[in-house]
Amino acid sequence: MGDYYEYESDDNDDQKQPIHRKVYPIYGRDRERSSAPSDSSTYLTGSSSASANALMNFDSDSHCDPKALLQAVVFVEDAVKFRSIKHKIDPFSLWYYRVYYSRPIQWTLYLAIFTILVLAFFEPPSSLTTGSSSDPRYRGDRIHAPCGVTEGIEFACLLIFLYDVCTKIYLIGFSELRKSKWLVAYLVVMAFSLIDWLVTINFVCDELYRIRRFLRPFFLIQNSQLMKKTVRSIKNTMPKVASVILLLLIHIYFFTMFGMLLFPRPDGDLKPSVLHNKTSNQTSLIVNDTTIVDSRIFQEGMQHFASIGESFMSLLVLLTTANNPDVTMPAYQNNRFYALYFIIFLGIGLYLFFNMLTAVIYNEFRGYLITSMQSSHFRRRLGFQAAFEMLRAQIRTVNGSIERCTVSVSVVKSVVLQASIPKRAKRTILTELDGNIGGVITSSEFQGLFDCLDHQTDEDEIPGPRLITRPRLKRLQSCIVHRFFGYCGTAVAVVNIVFISIEISTQYDKSLYHDDSELTKFNIVFIIYYCVEQILKFWALGWKCFKYSVTNLLDALFTAVLLVAQILYLVMEGSRLYPDDSVGFVMYDLVRIINILITFRLFRIITHFNTMAIVVSTMLDLIRNLRAFIGILVVIYYVFAILGMVVFRGKSPQPPNNTDITQLPMCGSYQQLNYYANNFDDFASAIVVLWDIMVVNNWHVFLEAYSKTASQWSQIYFIAWYFTSVLVCLNVFTAIILENFITSWDRSQKRQRQSLEEGNRPTAYLMSVHTMFRDDLQEPTESELLDEIYKHPHIQNLRF
């Protein structure tokens, strides 16, 4: 767009000085109806000046074009949800756009995504078996649905996804389709999935592989903007991570070669099994029928450094501490100075490279995530600015003149009322607008209205305790509402839990199985105290003040359930209506439930310690903020589980059919540890195996077992899973936890300082992924926003 020139009068000169300023044409279809002269164009200036003469009040006859109002409502909703505004803005498309993003449609889409992912548990090989174990010895027969059942459900889900992608293409237009890589990929995945589904139907569900299973997680990623940003951030982080991992591999390979030269092997045809079968009393070894040497010299070299591949794998597993100190013991038993080799190896790899990898992932991932959040913040500001521009360009007064810099508060209020905004934020915005009703609002003020979306909205005023006039009762009320009354209740709960711990530790059978146990009697006394405590608090505070605290509600709930369980126990103990043994088991379960509920009261301690409360608050925020990360983890688990089923199904080590003591498995092996339930025979079992490997402990057992039953190359699968899940995903998880906790702690300390210094309550941000980095985000200028609005593919087609 070209630059235009405006002129200002200079008091010292009769001539007008040109001022080079970028201005923007008003967008609107009703420009012809304006009473302004046809040769004078009206423009929206990029300046955000709020001078008094520009703020003109609207009279009662001012109104807004319904189309512009609808456009503003949709743009506001886009901004609230961090959605792109690059979609069609004609009335029908906007109506259909709002229908598409309505809750019924979106929940149907979520249900389809969940369903198509869960189908992996029921498709052949089904995870449903007649037995409750995944162990082949106790698993029983698999329960398979008839051919066409799961396929029909899958086809219904694919139809929903087809509707989804077609709707998105229609709403943004074909011109924007080429610019959206995710939508193009969506079309490709849909086409491939439908073709593979037809292949399944053609083979009557008896095809060898269902390749479309690998593509199903794409539907989960594609439907979440936050997951896309997380994937993009992880992808951008990988080059730096790959450099550290490569350095780590070089470190392992160097010590591999060093170890093969350090730990000798005998010059002959001696096999490792000979060393394994040696008893502890045998310290000599005959090599080539002539030389007699100490067998301990060759034990490390033969067991763990027999080849480059075996040496590399031994050190890789050692770096994860899964086989430490098993790998080091043969050499250490021979010579204690060999321990230096392993100490140096672990010191550099475990405590230097691994921590460096965590630091690199934290720094790089945080940087790219901030960049993504900056783009989301810009998208939100862009949506609000676009809404303001639609209103400003279309608002008219009675004589047809167009206001340039402001929008009527009444019009803004109508937009807020119609837009889908969180209730608390909407209430705060409307309250602020009602205070300026009849006035006008500028662009910057319009943007500021919606800042409450990121803030913790102040709750309604905390109601006080009920009003009591009698002096004695008022003194009793003061004692109950005092914080020391809460301390006393917490102390009683701690004493109760300590008593339960002592009784269970010393007299488990008597405490849980006998009716006249001391534990049961003392629990009755404590439960009576808890009931009296809740009654007193309810009386002193009143319902309005009592329900305001979540702690009070939880205490009341646990106390009520505890009282009901105790009453049931006493009734069953006293009545003896059921003389059979089943009553004993029911009463035993009630005793356990009572003690478990009492144990929950231990969490009352959290409310009395500020640091502990921040930690718990951070954990609760993580549950909300980790949805995108958990989605990525689900995708990784899903893909690796399907791949594991394809590669290892039916190749897991099988239990022996005989009990010959001469065929006993080696100590620490898959067979000896009885790991038969850990297999890749179905999807559920594969998920559990991947979890066990991600925990790292004993993961080398799976490496050795499947390298024997499948192939040596199968180790690549497990190594890839370890690098992906442990070195990348868990470090990203650590980075998110660190950032979340540091942000929560810093903001809490800042609020405390400001409250002490200024005496008022400072602004508190909601803890979400978008607001986690709020202090690091830059505000876009109005010129940048207007430039982006002018590039809108559908706004620029409007006549002006």
From TrEMBL:
It is found in: Membrane. It comes from the Eukaryota. Residues 108-365, 482-741 form the Ion transport domain. InterPro entries: Ion_trans_dom, TPC2, Volt_channel_dom_sf. Keywords: Membrane, Transmembrane, Transmembrane helix. Residues 1-20, 25-45 are annotated as: Disordered. One of its GO terms (biological process) is endocytosis involved in viral entry into host cell. The chain crosses the membrane at residues 104-122, 183-205, 241-263, 338-362, 480-502, 522-541, 553-572, 592-616, 628-648, 716-742. GO terms for cellular component: lysosomal membrane. It is a multi-pass membrane protein. GO terms for molecular function: intracellularly phosphatidylinositol-3,5-bisphosphate-gated monatomic cation channel activity; ligand-gated sodium channel activity; voltage-gated channel activity. Residues 1-13 have a biased composition (Acidic residues). Pfam families: Ion_trans. Its main location: membrane. This is Ion transport domain-containing protein.
